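Entry:
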Amino acid sequence: MTYTDLKLDQDGEVLKITVDRPEVLNAQSRIMREELDDAFDNAATDESVKVVIIAGSGANFSAGHDLGSPQEMADREKRPYSPGTAGEYERSWQQNVANTFRWRDFPKPTIAQVQGVCIMGGIILASSCDLIVASQDARFSDRTVRWGGPHVQYLGLPYEIGIRKAKEYLFTGDWMTAMEAEKLGLVNKVVPLEQLEEETMNLAQRIALQDAFALRLSKASLNQVQDQMGYRNSIMSGFHNHALGLSYRREIYDGEKVTSIERARERDKKFGD
């Protein structure tokens, strides 16, 4: 199938799905997320695929949520969201939590190939994968608190790096380097940028040597362990705090005549980054 925002390439039993929106740092529009859902659905039943790599084209993995690209704005006009709190809640749930659970529960191993910036929605996508290979220039950040909210919609960070470090990075909104991310357990492996694609593919091909059903059972067991530790319930309760934060942010910015992109740039000025 041909997609607008994705490129698909298969090397043996490894499928590589590349988000192809480098002009907006691979920001995640509704169209892109729907296409990724479809690509995962197809790969789940394709017996020729054992492992999936998720990558971003250009210099960056993902700048997160699409805050207003021409594609996103045209899509919103063509398919408007339901108005009010209920509509905002449903949109945010479907596009940032329900779909991420599906990607996380995809029955085959997944690897995020991360370079450059991985911000907010980018972290959601990367952490939905089973493994993360990052380049030395990769850096991660959730800046929602800087914007008057608690965190992104899908709060997986405490399970990735621990509560205390999650508090530090959420409370400050500071960048986490690839090396720090590896040390804390968010990233499995850090490699030079020029070796990122090769090293990620090598890992995927090594996993693909395994029996497909054994891999499926292994992943299911490990996800179940995480769920028994409260993972899924924590994500759901965190989303409700995020939804409350959206209402608070509307109060803060009520009447402002600026775009979301302009507000994001203004948000970080006093932090010097």
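The radius of gyration is 18 Å.
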